[in-house]
């Protein structure tokens, strides 16, 4: 029986973990699970080029064909609510659990929000996922002023 590796987190570390497994010759199942609906994308250009209007959409970490070509199951838009270590499965907010033999946690970090009484007047803003940046760009949220 082949083993199944699940990589939780579809940011740079998660995508590279999945790619490294294939490059090293791992022939079992590889599943990459991410909370955002978008194809995994580069974070730094999001808060710079995308918001400045010099880039139309986030730059993907790997092209869409990479995942199929490397036999990596990409599961986007999946929020994991718990890890059942005894049963070796991820519990999802919606949908059936995802079983694993090995789990890689590549969860990254979340931006720290500005906490200041002068936050609104200084233009302090937190740029998190693609959807937040899109809301800034569309004018649905006040645009941050980058110094």
Automatic annotation (TrEMBL):
Residues 4-140 form the FAD/NAD(P)-binding domain. Pfam families: Pyr_redox_2 (PF07992). GO terms for cellular component: cytoplasm. SUPFAM superfamilies: FAD/NAD(P)-binding domain. The keyword Oxidoreductase applies. InterPro entries: FAD-oxidoreductase/Apoptosis, FAD/NAD-bd_sf, FAD/NAD-binding_dom. Its cofactor is FAD. GO terms for molecular function: oxidoreductase activity, acting on NAD(P)H. Keywords: FAD, Flavoprotein, Oxidoreductase. PANTHER family: APOPTOSIS-INDUCING FACTOR 1, RIESKE DOMAIN-CONTAINING PROTEIN-RELATED. This is FAD/NAD(P)-binding domain-containing protein. It comes from Phytohabitans flavus.
């Amino acid at each position: 029986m082949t083993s199944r590796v699940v990589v939780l987190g579809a940011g740079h570390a998660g995508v590279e973990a999945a790619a490294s497994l294939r490059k090293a010759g791992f022939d079992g199942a590889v599943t990459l699970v991410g909370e955002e609906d978008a194809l995994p994308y580069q974070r730094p250009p999001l808060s710079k080029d995308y918001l400045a209007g010099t880039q139309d959409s986030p730059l993907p970490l790997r092209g869409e064909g990479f995942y199929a070509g490397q036999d990596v199951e990409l599961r986007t838009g999946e929020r994991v609510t718990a890890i059942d270590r005894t049963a070796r499965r991820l519990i999802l907010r919606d949908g059936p659990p995802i079983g694993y033999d090995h789990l890689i946690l590549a969860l990254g970090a979340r931006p720290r929000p500005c906490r200041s009484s002068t936050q609104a007047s200084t233009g302090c803003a937190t740029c998190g996922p693609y959807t937040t940046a899109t809301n800034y760009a569309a004018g649905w949220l006040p645009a941050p002023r980058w110094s």
